[in-house]
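User: Please work through this fold.
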Amino acid sequence: TLILVGTVTVISFILGVGLYGLTYVYPQYLATVRGMNSLQIGETLFVTGVFMFMTAPISGILSRRIDPRLMLVGGLVLFASGTWLASDVTADWDFWELFVPQFCRGVGLMFCMVPITNLALGTLPPATIKNASGLFNLTRNLGGAVGLAIIATVFTDRSDFHVERLSESVSWGREPATQYMESLERAMAPLGSDAHTAALQQLSLIVRQQATVMSFGDLFWLLTIMFALTACAVVF
């Protein structure tokens, strides 16, 4: 029983990271990289909610017919598949590129939430369910809070790392960088003496955008590994 409770608590914590963490990551990408406003972000991300709504009754039916551990593994694998697909993110991704990762997230969440709740609370005496339910929800919310802090920290660190590495690739000693800089200056020629400065600013923006995109890819890889390892924990 102790192993079951401990494992369920860990999985609930990880689900909190997935539930709230990706709710932060996707809008951040769409706002900072794609330049979308709040309405456009909502129109792009509603896919997850739609699939959660559609999967909820199916998940309830399956939970009564198959081993909940199988459902839980399936949900975590779907979750990991969605973040793995998103790890190839580029600066051009939009609604359709994010459609399948969001599908995996929405379906995976419902395949996880129903069985993990049954495993956490279904084996307890009725007198303890009230307090156990509060602790279970607290664990999930705590996972979301800690997960958001970790995600924000990792994103900042990886952004700094990628900016530094990419800056080395656009130094004056590299011919492709020099040629691109010259093409930017020609494009900025109408600005006169400010063409060089404007070209440098444009190149700096490109470097920072690509560093940001690469950082989002790193986050998705981190989440993929986390959910894959969590799926392995279900054997306990």
